[in-house]
Amino acid sequence: MASQTATFGAGCFWCLEAAMNQLNGVTQALSGYMGGAEKDANYNRVCAGDTGHAEVVQVEFDDEVIDFEQLCLIFFSLHDPTQLNRQGNDVGTQYRSVIFYHTEQQHNLALRLISELAAQQVFNGDIVTEVSPVSRFFIAEAYHQQYFIQHPEQGYCQFIVAPKMAKFRQRYQAFLKP
Fold it and tell me: Is 12 tagged catalytic?
């Protein structure tokens, strides 16, 4: 097994974490915070926009089963990378589209993919996804981990996450864990 780490921010972390944890080759996806200047991060401070951190999902994966490029393509399909500092009704830098790269190879691949997606005009607008070096990861509070699985009845989960998960499961059926 060739274990690697990838970190993505795509707005609210509940949706991205739920999707990544369903992928074959992903050993763990954790919700958390990254990219801020403050020495500590928690949900209340990050949501208030006080820390500069983004809501992210840190993904541990076996690159012999699923590679970083495929994870990036899935990441881009799960949110709108043309919205600057927002996803839907979630507004602020904490909801920015971002790839935090762990290696120079990830950095180069992320930039290449963004360039290719832009050239192919996959999205209606310019891709504003930030590509930044990895920084300290703060794991989110326990109640945020596997939130969608634990709270499918919650309003945001029913109206935002569930439809995205249904579309994701249909589109990426071949990549899902058995």
Answer: yes
